[in-house]
Structure formats: C-alpha cells, structure tokens
Amino acid sequence: MDMQHGRDRAMQRRPLVRAIATTLVLALAGPAIAQQAQGTNPQGAASQGTTSQDVITLDNMVVTANKRAENIREVATAVTVLGEQQLENFSSTQMTDYASYVPGLQVQSNGTPGQSQVSMRGIAAMSSGSTVGTYIDETPIGSNGLYQQATLFALDLFPYDIERIEVLRGPQGTLYGAGAMGGLLKYMTRKPDPTFTEFRIGGGVSDTEGAGDLGWNYRLGMNVPLIDDRLALRASYAENELAGYVDNLVDGRKDINEGEQTSGRVSLLWQGDATSVQFSAMRQTIDSENNARIALDAETHEPLFGLSNYVYVDEPFEKELDHYSLTVNWDAGFADFVSATSYADTHTVITTDQTLPYGEYTLLLGLPDPGSAYLTNTLDLSQFTQEFRLSSKTGQPFEWLVGAFYSDEDGDNHQFVGINQLDGTPIPGFPTLGDLMIPSTYEETAVFANASYRFNDWFKLGAGMRFSRNEQEFSQIVTDGVLLPIGTNDNTSEEDVFTWSVTPQFQVSEDVMLYAKAATGYQPGGPNVLVTGLPPVVDSSMLTSYELGMKSAFADNRLLFDLVLYQIDWEDIQVASLVNGVSGLVNGGEATSRGIEASATFRPVDGLTLGLNAAYNDANLDEDFPTIVVPAGDDLQVEINTGLKDDRMPYVPDLTWSFTADYFMPLGGGWNANFGGGVRWVDDRVNGTTERQVVRLLEPPTVLDTELTEPLVIDSYYAVDLYAAFSNANWTLRAYMKNVTDERAYSTMSDVTSEVTGVTHFTSATPIQPRTIGLEVDYRF
Questions:
Q1: Nearest one of 354, 353, 320, 325 to 338, comparing CA atoms
Q2: What are the tens digits of pLDDT across the range 80-136?
Q3: Would 323 disulfide with which of 5, 319, 344, 774, CB 3.0-4.6 Å?
Q4: Which tens digits make up the pLDDT trace of 438-492?
Q5: Which of 669, 718, 673 is nearest to 24 (CA)?
Q6: Using CA atoms, how far apart are residues 365 and 363, in angstroms rounded to an integer?
C-alpha cells in the first residue's frame, strides 16, 4: 500500500514538473536566439545565468560596512552584496541557497534551516563561540558567550522583506566587536516609506526529488503612509512549508524531515526635518520534524538506501526568534547621531538520536537488550544591546566616527540525555543518563572610534580602534544521571580586549583603487568548568589579518574586477578538551589562513551580464593542540591530541568558484523577461582534525601504542541552478530549478559509532538540497 500510494502521489506531481521544466527549457531558448541574431556564440547564455544584480559587486551599490552609506567601489574592504531580487530569483530560503556564490563564505548545514555553521576565509568554527557576527540593520543578534552553541545554530533568517545582505569578509572587530573576527553577515531590511502605498501578495509550489508531497509557500506585505511624508507602516508575513524527502529505515515512515519556516515583521517609521525614528518588531520561526540526514556506507560513503536514515528517536528542531529594535537618527548639523537599541528572545530546542552511540549502555548494567537513547538540548537567550555613535558628514577630507556599545545576555542551556527500551517505553527503575543545566550571563561594554583622512585625490588613510570589557558568570548544575557527577560548579570571568585596524587607500586612476588593510578581531573567552587539569578561564581567541585589495572597472564599467589577497594569523584557538570525563575548553595553539579571492562582472552586450567568483584558501594548524592526559590505571596514561600540526581547518575547501549569467529582454506591452542561472563548485573538505592517542607506560617510560584517527574527507561537488522570470509593473511569474542534475553531494558528515563497543555502524551525512523545481507568482498593487 505504501509503495502504491507513493506512485500515485508521484503521478499527481508530473503535470507540475512538466510545466515548470518546459518553462525553463523555453526560457533558455530565448537568449540563444537573441545572441544568434547578434552574431555571438549561441550557447553563451543558454546554459548558465543569474540576475543582472548578481552576487558580484556592482558599480552603483551602496553599502554600510563602515557604518555610513558609501559606494561599494570606494570602500576599502572586501564586501559582497546579495540583493532582494537575486534572493527571490533563486528562491533562497536559507544560507545554503546562496553561500556558494559568495567568495570566502562557507556554510555547513546539519539538516534544517537554522542548524548552520558559518565560517569565512578559513576561520572555522572550532569551539562553541561565534567567529562570524550577525547584524539586523543597526543591531547585533546572537550570543557572544560560550554556552549558547552559537557556532551550531547561526542565525539563518528566512529572507522575506530583506532589501539586501551585506557579507563583510575579514575581521570586523573595531566597528562590530566580539564574535566578528572572521567576518560579518548584515541583513538590511526594507524601511517603511511615507511617500507611496504598496501591497504585495504571492505564493508558490515546489517539487523536490524524493519527496512524497509538494512544498508550498505564501507571502504578503504592505507599505502604507499614515501621514504623508512623515509617518509610514510596513508589515509583512511569509510562510514556507518544506517538503520532506528522507525516509526512516527503522520504522518505514516516509518524508520524515518535513518542516516549516515563518517570518513576520512590522515596522513603523516617523520622519521629521532633522530626525527619524524607526521601531521594528520581527518574529521568525523554524519547525522541523526531523533532520535531513542520510545513512552512508562507512567505507565507501555511498548511500546505503538512497535518501534514507536510521532514526530510532525522532529528531525535531524548533527555533523561535523575537527581535525588537528602535533606531533614532538625528542630523545635528556638524555630525550625524545614531541611537540603536534592541531586545531579542531566542528559543531553540533540538533532539538528537543517541541510540546507536549510547543505547548499548544498558548492557553494561546487566540489562538483556540495548535501549534507545536521545539528547534534548534547550537553549534560551535574552539579549539587550544599546549603541550610541556620532559621525562626521560623508564626503569631507577628514571623516570620523566615535561610539559606545553595551550588551547584556542572559542564557540557559538545558541538556537532558534519556534512555528507554528500544520501543521507546521507560526502563523501570533505571535512571537517566544525564540532566544538566548551564545558566550563564555575558555583559559587555565597549568604546570605539574610526577615522580617515584624504590627503589628496589619490591617497587616503583610515584607522580604527575598539576597547571592550566583558564580565561573565556561569554555572554547571548536574541534577541526575550516570554520565556526569552530581553537583554544581560556579565560575566567573572578566577580560579586557583591544582591537585595531589601519587602512591605506590609493586611487591609482579614476577606475582603479588599491588598498591595504591590517586589522584584528577576537572571539571572547569566558569561565570554564572547574576541574583539576582545566584552566579556570579560557582566554579570547585573537587573530591579525593582512589584506591587499584592488577594485577596478574597465570598458565604461562594462567590466568590473575585484581582487583580494590575505593572510590571517590566528592564535589562542579555543578547542574542546576532556579531563577526567569532564569536557571544557582550552586555548589550543595557532593557525594560519592564506588566500586569494576574485570577482568579475562582464556586460558584453546590453541585457547580458556574466559573473565569476573564485576563492582559494590554504588554512592549516601551525602546531599540535594541547595534550589531554587521561589516567588509565596506576602505571598507565592515555595522551590525546585532538588536532595536529598541518591539519586542514574543518569544512574549509581549498577552492570554490561560481559562474553566473543573466539575460534581460523586453517583451513589449510592458512585459520583461529575465533568464539566468549559475554553476557553483566546492572543493573537497575534511570534517575535523586528526586525533592522536598514545598509550604510555609510566614506569619505565614506554609508549605501548599509538593510534591516529584521520578526519573524514567530504568529496568536492558542483551544482547548477536555473531560473526564468516574466514580469510587468504588477505581476511576476518565476520558475526555478535548484541542483538541476540532482548531484548527491554532502554538506556535513560524521561517523555513527558506539561509545560502548567502538563499532562504527554507518556514516551520517547531510546532502545538499536535492533537485527542486518550483513555480512562483507575485502580484503588487
């Protein structure tokens, strides 16, 4: 019955698939015919493309990287901008949809939107603290402490009502502070406009390879002036139903990874002669029934049974974000004053199936059969931030900015490890494996300044500094279980951090700008678990970046070319350590990341835009991580290193590149067409660092055994994305295809190994989005 039902649903989907596929085929024929008529290569735009406002930096784009509005071609830092139109054309609903089109940006998914790890330029997520910062307009969001799992659950906004996303690569410590040492993601939302009225409604359907049901979405929004030229309201809501495509090999259930994303936002703007005030409230949710992970053969890394996994205990993921902000802008005549206030509540709950790693623990206690085990992690964070800054007017020879910043975080981390019988029923009289609470606080105060002076038409020098102080409190409260000792540990920490930047800038000609940049950034330290052998406090992780860049334009701005070379020296890396069965953090040595990034945009003829992004990165450890010593008896000890010199940084590819193209064509009668797509390629990666385990006899000193565990290698892959859009002043009809050839490639990978017997059952992996075909329609009035 289940197989027949699946065939019936598949047959019902065929008309939609054929309609969308036909639309895309016809769309790609249009540019080919047009180019033949112009005498160019008929295949030039027929097989690739994106939008004319692609991920490539454009000559007329305004960005706020330096906390003032500037032309991107004049900003002496590496910035990539993703516009609203291109996010819509590719139907981007999460970071993994666009990350491969941004040089130097890596995003790993653990199976749902919101379960994302973000790194830039080889600065990988080695601990629980964030290395890439996130802003929504003028305010930061996301924890800077060590106990909110910031690297596992990076903010992954459902990008509806987003005007653009600015990706700032390299350390942003002077202007953006803690946690932005690798770079910054800056979501810029659409502001209310008191000069016009607009309403919008839209929706779409999609078909994903392996899914039993269609995905669907809808969205609506409005901009309404309440007082002409003074007061306006903007409101929007969107919902996206994610189709499931992973089947459960344990109980036969189909499509267990269905999910839902929602995004709601209300913003009110009052605009006076010299002052504006904007209040915004946003709520975003993610609710997934299971992770999109599949089982691979542990040796060959081939799928065991297609898009399927062994799930004994369901793995739901929920995330709720409520964010409120109040921004006041005042033109004081001689300078501009900004006050940016925010408050956010974030609630995250995830359950992971631990049956195969820990279910056999019951056998050690004399029970006849293995059980089912699971870990439920609940994270709650409330965060208040306040920034004041005063900046000079733009366009003067001497530009300056001074500011003060305050952040107060109150977080809780509850971890419950349960064990039941294999069918899920409780084991009479058997305790839980662990019940742990980790409340923590993080309070930061900072002052910062940034200035630049233009000596003449060709030379400008910029510099910045930031002094920060943070104070933290932390408790580890174990109330039940057999994995950790019952009891409470409390600890505190405080630290002062100074960051700086220097940026000389040279305008070689009207169309060529060269710059150099030396800058520092940091990842905050914090209090550690109080155990003999672990330091009471882990220090900040610091890095220094050296960057040389060029931004150029040729052929009347028909060719734009950007090139960046960098070296990053990273020290005091925070890494996990295990002492006497208790996990904590230590500062683990140094690493170096070197690379080159290039972006080019070419407009050979009117209407056709070609783009190329490429990045090469060489990121490696410069020394072994600290040795963990575990006593193994009266005269034996085990020495463990969790990372060795020359290891590659986890999940950092050596080479990535993407090619994009877009063709714009007026159709007459007020209608236009865009045909496009892109090819993205990601090099192979490793999922971790090398572990070396040495068994040593103390008397006489003798090495009895040495074992090396190499990280898993995740193969390189390419993927092709296409779209076609037809629009007029009111209507937009869009068809798209993600991963056209349905490449079975992987974002993350890890072995599933029994902690009792040491047997590896299989390898668990998150595939990139299987081939997805969709159709969208929007109406504006």
A1: 325
A2: 998 888 888 888 888 889 899 999 999 999 999 999 999 999 999 888 888 899 999
A3: 344
A4: 999 999 999 999 999 999 999 999 999 999 999 999 998 989 887 777 888 899 9
A5: 673
A6: 5
